[in-house]
Each structure stands twice: as structure tokens, then as C-alpha cells.
Amino acid sequence: MIRSHARMAAFLSTVWMGLGQLYNRQWLKGLFFFLFELILVIFAREPFLRAMWGLWTLGETPQKRVGGKIVVQGDHSIFLMIEGLIALILLLLVLILYIQNIRDAYTDGRARDLGERPLSLFAAGRKLWETGYAYILLTPAFLFTLFLTVLPLLFGVLIAFTNYSGPYHLPPKSLVDWVGFKTFIDLFSLKTWSRTFWGIAGWNVIWAVLATLSTYFAGLFYAVLINAKRVKGKRIWRAIFILPWAIPQFIAILIFRNILNGQFGPLNQLLVSIGLPRIPWLSDPFWAKVSIVGVNLWFGFPYWMALMSGVLTSVDRELYEAAEVDGASPSQQFWRITVPLVMLATAPLMIMSFAFNFNNFNLIYLLTSGGPANPSYAYAGSTDILISWIYKLTLEQSQFNMASAVSILIFIVVATISIINFRRTRAFKEEDLV
Amino acid sequence: MNTTVGLNKLRSYLATFLLYALLVATAIIVLLPVVWIVISSLNPGDTLLSTSLWPKALTLDHYRDLFTKTDYPRWYMNTLKIATANMFLSTFLVVTSAYAFSRFRFPGRRAGLMAMLVLQMFPGFMGMVAIYILLLQLGLLDNLWGLVLVYAGGSIPFGAWLVKGYFDGIPRSLEEAARIDGATNTQIFLKVMLPLSYPILTFIMLNNFISPWMDFIFARLVLRSQANKTLAIGLFEMVTGTGNTKFTTFAAGAVLVAIPITLLFLFLQKYLIEGLTAGANKG
């Protein structure tokens, strides 16, 4: 007869955690697993079922008030939802432990089949430390990411499928319900929402393209300019030009907010003093957009200049000498050697920069706060981009479901760009081989 | 002398002149806002209007006011605390997970890497409401540590990918030699990997130190009371309030924030550029 302690132990551990370990005569470990499941079943079953009920229904008793006094506290839909999600995540962690318990019983059973003595608890602990080292290393980061990134994002995604919004569906006063895709349908079919969305999305794309291209080519221009043979004091010029990158961005933006102030700002004072009219830098939709792109150019180009200067200094001199021998003119050398080399080295970063600019909240919010006001938009100003619109929808207007729906759309755009970019980089190809 | 040679020489002088003119003009555009804010902080008046680039007198009053009449020192300490704590916590989380992903092959590795990639693509504050409620439940709202936790959680996906890319570039032969000599995983990590990773470690630490100085969104969400404000929020409120009557005080505050960060940045610039290019090529 083939002795199969392995299968028997695995089977027992599937029935109830720890049974397989006990069968393998690993008393301490077995007892630990056994008690763990017992405690879970006794104490965690009720709260878990309640959490699932909460996640499913989002609460059933609304708050009742009589004469301004709260008579029945009622269910808080949003708390219920988050508790439900936490319960699901904990269930996932328990399931991982459960599978580990079965695997452990199986491997130790196999060791018995092969006539080896199962490891003592101490030896097993040491073995776990070496083989499970990666998991131990990852545990802190895993927990942080799970609870502070994954959980909030899952919640954020789920919100889009509810009616969580002011003024009628704000807990604890009233309940929130699941509504399916209604928020997305509203976003595209209701006039005010769709007009705002398309208007902002259009400007958002134009802004991201302008911001990326303007800083990229200005950076290239100055990197090449300073690199020219006849420029003396290259290091000093570079040090001066890199300054806007080094200054904390929010400080720079707030400084410009004052410089561009339409009434008292020094720029308009200068214009007036030389006999020109004032320009409404931040209060006219068109000029506000010009200001945003201009300010971004001011602190954006040094980054590219620094990167490209590095690339330029590492280009092999011989390439140019060979080109000169072949009779290439300086402009040919520039367009056929310099530009392609720099582009090759910096193109992936350009796409990353596009994705960053697409969501550059700080610049928009600190410089114009989305203004000037645009009466045909719902809760947005003329220079708002999607991300600053979401911010306003969430923190100022309590339109949580709509904010979440727009976030999902942004995610789809950014994810598409990133995946296209990432597929081309070496890292992904190397990863595929592993 | 040939006239064409003379013409060529003239053209060359003209080109050099134009080149320098362009450089000087750009330098002025780059430097003027910086000079202006420094001068503003030394101007005697209070408001934006009364500030001029050629003030009749200079004063340090606004710097004194900053420390005696506003909560500026407090904001500075808060920000410094948050930034330092975030630097250590985030770097620890990032480096340990990057080491695991780079050097070990285990079930769930690819899924983990993919998940971190996807997580980077969500707009950061999509989870804002959930984080708010979570911190509320944990009693960490309006608490500097609560904010540090939020920053640290958010820094992992991007940082781990970047550092993993760098670790991947370190040859394995060194570790294998150490392993033959009987080194444990922890010893290899601390004595072989980390000393070889100074550029990327500097980059990650600097990044994690600087980013809390710039953040508004989460700082505003988590820190509610006057006593717990960070610099970014405090300074923002100074110039967005009605009438801009504290403009020169803001200027003084801005100068005091900008000086250390700018110097730090300029000193470590080399590492920053290395870190960025390493990230571009490998991560």
C-alpha cells in the first residue's frame, strides 16, 4: 500500500485548520491553527456577516429626527461600506493563512511519506525565515499598501456606483444606495455635466500637451545653447538656469500668483508705467491659460535642460568629427546627430512627464484655483483641469459619486498611456523573461 | 584683406552677441521673480501694492513678525517633523520591498509588481474620502503621524519600482560570494546591497523628505487645527486671504523655506539626475 500521509494531512487541514498538523504529530503548531480557526468561528462570524450585510445594503434604517433631535441614530452607509471592505480584506488575509496551513500540512506529510522526521517548531521557524524571507521583507509594505492605498482606491471606485452626493444623500442624515452605472450615464447625458466634462477634458489634454512640449523643447534649446563652443562659463549659466527647478514649486507658484495679480501685481504695474494697458493675467479665461503655461515653462524647462546637458556631454565627440569630415553642416549635425540622440535618451521620461502634467493639481489650484469662474460649467472654473475639478467636487461640493466617476475615467487615460510606454521599456521585457 | 572673411567675422561676432543676449535675457527672466521675492521680504510696507523693486529702505521687520506674530515656527517644526519621519518610514518600506522584488522569486511576485504599477496610475486623492474616514476611525485625524502614514503608504508603489530597477542592475556575483562565506539574507542586504545603492537611496530619501513640503491635498485633509498646519498650507492661506495684506510677511516666510530646500537640492542635484535617468532606463 502506498502510504500517503501528505494527502491525508492536507485533507484534514482543509476540513479544519490544524487537524493535518496534529495528524503529523506537530502538536504545538496544530493546536495554534486549530484554536485560531475556533476563535475566528466563534467571535468573528457575527461581525463578518454584519459587515457583509452592510456592504450589500449600505444600511436600512434612515436617521429619524423629531423637532431637530435625533430619535433613531440610523445606519451610516459610508462607514458600513468601509467596514465591509475591511472585512473582505481581512477575509482575504485569513484565506491566505488557510492555504498556507494546507500547504504546510501537505509538505510535512510528504516528509513523513519519505521517512523523514518533520521539523521541530524551532527548525521550522528557521526554515521559514530563510525561505519566506521575501514575504517577511514585504509584509510591512504590503500592509501599508493594502490599507492606505488599495482599500481607499477600492472604496473610491465603489463610490462611483452609488448616489453618495449632496444635498440629499449625505450620511449620517440620510442613506446612500447602490445605483449601478447611473452616475456615468448622468455624466454623459445630462447637459450641465457633459458640457463641463468635455470642456475641461479638452483643455486638460491641450494643457498637458503644451506643458510637456514647451518645457521639453525649451530645455533642449537651452541645453544646446549652453553647450555651444562659443559660450563661456557653461557651469555658471547652468547653475543660474537650474534655479527654478530647485526652488520649492509651491513657493514659486505662489510668487507668480502675486506677480501676475491683475490689480497690484508688479508685472501690470510695469506695463502701466510704460504706457501699456493692464492684462488680466489671472482673471480672463484666455490669459489665465497663457499664464499657466508660461509659469509652468518657467519652472519646467530646467529639469529637461539638466537631463539633456547630461546626455549632450556624454555624446561621443568622434561622431561630430566624422560628420564634419563627411561635410555635414552644423545644422545637419544638430538635426541628424544631436536631436535623435537626446530624443532617444529622454522620450520615455517625456511620456511620464505628460502623465504628470495631465494631473498637475498644484499648479492649477495654487495659481488660479481653477478661476476665472465659468457660469456654463458645473462646479468648475475656466482653467480647471479634471483633477482640480474632482478636488472641488469632493471637498467643496460633496459630489462624491461624480468625482469618483471622473477619477475612474482619468485612471483609464493615464493607465493606457503608461502601459503603452511601459511595454516599450526594457524593464518590462526583462520582467517577461523571469 | 578679403571682404568675405571680414563679413564672416562680423557675422560670427553678431552670432556670439545674440547668443549672450539671449542667455542674459533668460537669466533675467529666471532670476527676477527670485530677486523680487527677496526684496519684497525686506520692503517696509505690508501689501503687494506698496512693494517695489527699488525700496527706499530695507527692513528685517517681516522676519521678526514671522516669528513673533504668526505660527510660522510651529508650521516649520510640523513640516520638518513630518518630512523627517516620512523620509525614514517611506525609505524603509520602499527599500525592503524593492529588495524582495529584485532578489527573490516567490509566488505572487509578478502579481505584486503589476499591482504596484497599476496603483501608481490612480489619481492620488481618489482615495481621499476613504482615508479621511479611516483616520477618523483610528483617531489619527488632525495628527502628524496620521499624515505620515498616508504619505508612506502612497510612496511605496513608485519608489519600490524605481529602487527595484536599480537593484536589478547590481551584479549578483557579489552576493553569491558573500553567501558562500556564510552571510545571511539580512547581512547581504545591509552590507552588500545598501552600500552599493547610495545614489538611488539618496534620491529616494530626498524625494520623501521634500514631497511633504509641497503637499496641500492630504495636509489639508488630515490636519485640521491651527496648531497642526504645515508650511504649505500656512503660506497659502497668507496670500489667498482677502486683500493680501500680509504679502511681505509671506515673502519672508517663502524665502526661509526656499533657502534650505534649494541648497539641499543644488548639492544633491547630481544624485537626482542619476536617479531619474536610472528610473527611466530601468523602471
TrEMBL record, chain A:
UniProt keyword annotation of Transmembrane helix present: yes
Domain ABC transmembrane type-1: 201-421
Cell compartment(s), UniProt: Cell membrane
Keywords: Cell membrane, Membrane, Sugar transport, Transmembrane, Transmembrane helix, Transport
Gene Ontology molecular-function annotations: ABC-type maltose transporter activity
SUPFAM superfamilies linked: MalF N-terminal region-like, MetI-like
GO biological process, one term: maltodextrin transmembrane transport
Membrane-related topology note: Multi-pass membrane protein
GO cellular component, one term: maltose transport complex
Ranges annotated as spanning the membrane: 27-44, 78-99, 135-161, 197-224, 236-256, 286-313, 334-356, 402-422
Family the UniProt entry places it in: Belongs to the binding-protein-dependent transport system permease family. MalFG subfamily.
PANTHER family: MALTOSE/MALTODEXTRIN TRANSPORT SYSTEM PERMEASE PROTEIN MALF, MALTOSE_MALTODEXTRIN TRANSPORT SYSTEM PERMEASE PROTEIN MALF
Record function comment: Part of the ABC transporter complex MalEFGK involved in maltose/maltodextrin import. Probably responsible for the translocation of the substrate across the membrane.
Name the record gives this protein: Maltose/maltodextrin transport system permease protein
Organism: Candidatus Carbonibacillus altaicus
From TrEMBL, chain B:
Any one of the GO CC terms: plasma membrane
Compartments it resides in: Cell membrane
Gene3D superfamilies: MetI-like (1.10.3720.10)
Any GO molecular function: ABC-type maltose transporter activity
InterPro entries (alphabetical): BP-dep_ABC_trans_perm (IPR050901), MetI-like (IPR000515), MetI-like_sf (IPR035906)
GO biological process, one term: maltodextrin transmembrane transport
Assigned keywords, A-Z: Cell membrane, Membrane, Sugar transport, Transmembrane, Transmembrane helix, Transport
Main location: membrane
Origin superkingdom: Bacteria
Entry keyword Transport: yes
Residues passing through the membrane, by range: 12-39, 82-101, 113-138, 144-167, 188-210, 247-268
Residue ranges occupied by any ABC transmembrane type-1 domain in the UniProt entry: 76-268
Membrane topology designation: Multi-pass membrane protein
Homology family: Belongs to the binding-protein-dependent transport system permease family. MalFG subfamily.
Protein name per Swiss-Prot or TrEMBL: Maltose/maltodextrin ABC transporter, permease protein MalG
Source species: Candidatus Carbonibacillus altaicus
